[in-house]
Design brief:
With about 90 residues, the chain is an alpha+beta fold. The protein is built from 2 helices and 5 strands, in the order βββββαα. The longest helix has 13 residues. The chain is globular.
């Protein structure tokens, strides 16, 4: 699964062909021993959990990069190469 961004110890990933299980545009987020799946459309957690501080950082990052994330999602579900997205600074 390609890593599309990394900031403050948070790893953001997107699977190829990953629209069967969750049926909506989403990203996978790893932070220490925590994993969560976030909806790109509304920034909600679909599955898993993150500490509150990291959850808020990811939600803000999704809002800032929503258009880029949707473009990557369209590429990923068709198996095409996806692009890195700038981290939070």
């Amino acid at each position: 699964m390609p890593t599309i961004s990394f900031f403050y110890g948070i790893i953001i990933q997107m699977f190829f062909y990953d629209n069967a299980r969750h049926h909506l545009p989403h990203i996978h987020v790893l932070y220490q021993d925590n994993e969560a799946v976030f909806s790109i459309e509304d920034t909600s957690i679909i599955e898993g959990e993150l500490p509150n501080k990291q959850r808020k950082l990811v939600e803000a990052w999704i809002e800032i990069h929503k258009e880029e994330l949707m473009a990557d999602w369209k590429l990923a579900i068709s198996g095409q190469e996806i692009f890195k997205i700038a981290p939070l600074k």
